[in-house]
Amino acid sequence: METSNEKSTGALLHLSVFTQYFFPLGNFIFPTIIWGARKNSSDFVDHHGRQALNFQLSMLLYTLILAMIAIPIFIFTLFKNIPTRAYINEENFQIENFNIENITGIVILGIMAVFIFGVLKMAEFFLVIYATIKAANGERYKYPLTINFIKATSQNNDLKTTEPELQAE
């Protein structure tokens, strides 16, 4: 049974990822500080700290992949429609022949990447709130679509396997 302090720390670990909206990389820094200070005191806190950080690292990876798809597509599409003489001679220009009929499949792929990014950020927001509620209730939670970058330490696994062996003797 988890103590009230462990539940609060687990919930705080998840909520601390919202600092990304106030501090650059706050979604990594603050959970790492909280988790690092308390991970050895409780298996419950260690679990939620690993889950919060693994989820944020996974979201970063997904965001980078989507950006690598969308940004070059939009830059190419923009510069394809600007005459070369306009940005060499610093002239005013008017984008010509830019209408819905000229949108290609590659541009649709870029638009889809931006849409998926928006859906991913909304899902992140709601999943973090859900994980916070689970932690506050003393339940363990595993985020969906998460890659386990930070695995459980072997020290915790060794303790779990040696305890039953000691009791059997």
From TrEMBL:
Membrane topology note: Multi-pass membrane protein
Classification via InterPro entries: MamF_MmsF
Transmembrane segments: 20-38, 59-79, 106-133
Keyword Transmembrane helix: yes
Pfam families per the UniProt record, alphabetical: MamF_MmsF
Coiled-coil ranges per UniProt: none
Main subcellular location: membrane
Subcellular location: Membrane
Keywords: Membrane, Transmembrane, Transmembrane helix
Name used for this protein in its record: DUF4870 domain-containing protein
Native organism: Flavobacterium qiangtangense
Organismal lineage: Bacteria, Pseudomonadati, Bacteroidota, Flavobacteriia, Flavobacteriales
